[in-house]
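Structure request: MT21E methyltransferase, Drymodes brunneopygia.
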Amino acid sequence: EDEQIVAEIMGRRFFPDLITHKTWEGFHFAGHEIRITEATDCYGAVVWPSALVLCYFLETNSKQCNLVDKNVIEIGAGTGLVSIVASLLGAFVTATDLPELLGNLQHNVLQNTKQKCKHQPCVKELSWGIDLEKNFPRSSRHFDYILAADVVYHHPFLDELLLTFDHLCKNDTVILWAMKFRLEEENKFVDRFQTLFDLEMISNFPSLNIALYKAMRKGRMKA
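Returned structure:
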């Protein structure tokens, strides 16, 4: 079953017939052909398999996870594929990442959502753990969903990442997080994450070493 679903997920990707001066990959999600411009010199400007897993879940579970008119933020949006799919599914999306990635992110989001979405998504800078209250004040910012794909890897900002999850998440916010398991140090982040949030694995793909989680604040999952 794992291999069959993984084949379906990876089958959503296609490549250009002709090589052009811009490197791009294509994807089929939410009834649209999505073209993503990538940059090979930066982790954040490449589409990783975790993003495809999360996009596939959002599309195939649109009834249980209805994004229409929901306020959604993606952290570590990278190329913007997840944010684009969420937008095409009817959400009002804020796609966030580091300042050096915003140009490519904005290009992809605009190219693939203009005049195609109920709500035009916005792109905003978010450096994990920095100026959170200033840029995303808790009193006026409420997100129904936080989306994250492959935000845990070998980087020195895991403390800041956990702080960012904590700041953005209200009592009724749902976190959907796709994670590729790599090194033991990074895997320990899951244990730390569970000190603040209830965590439920909703999909597991051993052939990709990727798990998809749903999370809410402690004590809110069953409620």
